[in-house]
Amino acid sequence: RFANGSLDNDPEDLFDWDQDPTYYGFHGGDLAGIRSHTDYLKSLGIDAVYMTPVFESPSNHRYETVSYFKIDHRLGANDEFSALTRHLKKAGIRTVLDGVFNHTGTEFFAFEDVRAEGADSRFADWYTVHDYPVRIDAKPNYEAFYGFPSMPKLNTLNPHVQSHIFEAMTFWNQNAEIAGWRLDVANEVSMPFWRRYRRHMKSLGEDQLIIGEHWGDGTPWLKGDQWDSMMGYQFREAALQWIARGNGSPSKYLETLIGIYLSYPPQVSGNLMNLLGSHDTPRFLSMADGDQDLLKLGQTMLLTWPGAPCIYYGDELGMAGGADPDNRRGMRWDLAEQANDVLAHVRRLIAMRQASPALMKGEPTVQFTDDERQIGAFSRTYDGETALVAVSRSSHPETVVIPLSKGLRRWASSTPLRDGLTGYPIALTAHGELRVELPPKGSAVVLPEDLVLALSN
Questions:
Q1: pLDDT value at position 456?
Q2: pTM above 0.90?
Q3: Which of 123, 180, 355, 455 is the most buried (most CB within 10 A)?
Q4: What is the pLDDT of residue 324?
Q5: 20 an active-site residue?
Q6: pLDDT by residue (tens digit) across 32-50?
């Protein structure tokens, strides 16, 4: 749903781009659409794209894989995909694919053979079939993802299944130079498989990224022998509670984030794929009742907190959307204009993040909370560089005076400071405190003046 760049691969029953999405409709988004908007991605400061499944599948969401070796014809061809990923890489943008290795579609060659040959199929042990013949109905007689008959579950302990998947990984690594994989429903796949998977991935390149999908505590998978990172749904849930819904308090919110950060090794916490929304969730703006100020507040936290922030397409434009499939509306390219405050806010945050070593790599420390006024602040420090972020959910403008530790006082007194979002100077009180002005439901990112001025030139 990002962009339709080629009419040649459009299906006959094509939906209009702005038509309400359904579970079955195709809107024409394709590889050519991504390529045609490379400049837009670069202008945002994006350095990686995660694509939901791109392989041949009968469904629009493509989690019912027909072949791990063939790009879906509605998106383009294999050569076109390889050309796209190399084009993006040359532009400084790496590609992460969606690895759906928990299950296949019913049209997958191995499952079709099991249907035809029954227990005599040489692929019988690729799946868990309870009795024969195979029945594809509302209550299938085989293990399936969430019981959906269209997604029979793979036996990933089978060495032939493993070899087939590893062959596909090698194929795309060699032919498309991808940067890694996001692993679908990864907590439902056996850990021995992930250990073998990791060894194979790292044999293709030590920097190949492994991101598991899990919505809770990922500690068992993040000990260095399976995943590198996981999707940050814990981060999202905390943002939903305080920022979008107004539940809890800033002290509880920051305490939760610090707790998530400290629950993993630092090399994991620094790479968690944090997000405000995804193809599986309602959009953050809709969860915040359409309040763009709250969306921007969430984006401030997303892009200043430790991790690898991930933006669901269109959230940077202020797109709305309810539960799946309404969250998969066609990209609102009419909103991609200079006058869009949400877009300008995201671009500014990304530019600050990439220019500030503290915002890229710094350790987080809570500096201040005022639950009555709904204000919180944290700092990040790395190699002598510091950034301080203050956020407010108050409906009124607020002036906040933030006490500083001895180390932060030295930082604040040694260099002029400005708010990176507004460019305004930040004053230091006679007692060595920071005085920060916060707009209603707004934020400030305090950085050295020279960095802020450089971003403005």
A1: 84
A2: yes
A3: 180
A4: 96
A5: no
A6: 999 999 999 999 999 999 9
Which tokens go with 257?
């984030």
- 3-class SS at 53? coil
DSSP 331: P
CA–CA separation, 255 vs 365, rounded Å? 10
23 secondary structure, DSSP code = S
Q: What is the Cα–Cα distance from 414 to 41, expressed in whole angstroms?
A: 36
| Angle in degrees, CA 130, 132, 134, rounded to 5 | 90
- Give the pLDDT band of residue 457 (cuts 50, 70, 90): confident
Amino acid residing at 331: M
The answer to whether the CB of 348 falls within 8 A of the CB of 355 is no
Cβ partners under 8 Å of residue 330, min gap 6:
1, 17, 18, 19, 21, 27, 29
Q: Which two tokens stand for residue 376?
A: 């919180």
pLDDT in tens, 159-214: 999 999 999 999 999 999 999 999 999 999 999 999 999 999 999 999 999 999 99
φ, ψ of residue 190 in degrees (nearest 5)? -65, 140
User: What is the arithmetic mean of pLDDT over 118-142?
Assistant: 97
Residue 101 backbone phi and psi in degrees, to 5 = -110, 0
Active-site residue, from 98, 213, 315, 370: 213
% of residues, the chain, pLDDT over 70: 100
pLDDT tens, residue by residue, 256-268: 999 999 999 999 9
Residue for token pair 């400084």: 92
The residue from 98, 184, 293, 370 that is catalytic is 184
The strand pairing partners of 445, in sequence order, are 389
- According to DSSP H, which parts of 25-108 are helical? 31-36, 38-44, 78-90
Q: Which amino acid is at 21?
A: P
Tokens linked to 24: 């079955």
Cα gap 236→163, rounded to integer Å: 35
- Beta strands in 103-240, from DSSP E residues, in sequence order: 180-183, 209-212, 229-232
Judge contact between 276 and 305, C-beta under 8 A: no
CA-CA distances (angstroms) from residue 157 to 161, 191, 214, 407, 410? 7, 9, 20, 53, 57
* Catalytic site includes residue 177: no
Side-by-side strand order, sheet with 398-402? 363-370, 375-382, 385-392, 443-448, 417-419, 425-428, 434-438, 398-402
